């Protein structure tokens, strides 16, 4: 059913029905985005997500019948970029896919923020001269915050700007991805010096000159 829907939207889909065969299919098809059901026969979707993330930064959208927060958070922490709970509307799924496929907005010049250099053209980030391995979504999230120093972004605004939501979304997406991003860019993720939490509001990049 999903293949018919996606091909009707001009997308090409390949189906893998067993978690044990996903990595072989992934290497052969080289997808631009992965729709990953957590309830797979064979190797479970959570384990598959971790395997994909070890090999690639391709966007991953979880399809799950489990709406409980611990299950969703576990999937996001395994490396998924977004999730959608069954049953869902086909239009919503297609919108999520197109949001993940869109190219990041290009800045005119590399963005320098303290000892971080973000290069939109090369889609690379370095800190203290060392490359940081960010997923495309983490790159967009960092670019949004560093490109607007000292501005406080609510989680809802970040969902709109980074995930492409044009309706109320689930803010746990932002929280989990912020934790992952901080683990990569901060010296001490528990005491962040680059992106701080504004209690009750959202997140803010801390200007190096502040």
TrEMBL record:
Pfam families (UniProt xref): Response_reg, Trans_reg_C
Recorded GO CC terms: cytosol; protein-DNA complex
Domain of life: Bacteria
CDD domains: REC_OmpR_MtrA-like, trans_reg_C
UniProt-recorded Gene Ontology molecular function terms: phosphorelay response regulator activity; transcription cis-regulatory region binding
Keyword vocabulary terms for this entry: DNA-binding, Phosphoprotein, Transcription, Transcription regulation, Two-component regulatory system
Entry annotated with the keyword Acyltransferase: no
Entry's Gene Ontology BP terms: positive regulation of DNA-templated transcription
Statement: the UniProt record of this protein carries the keyword Magnesium: no
PANTHER family with a match to the protein in the record: DNA-BINDING DUAL MASTER TRANSCRIPTIONAL REGULATOR RPAA, REGULATOR OF RPOS
Identification of the protein by name: DNA-binding response regulator MtrA
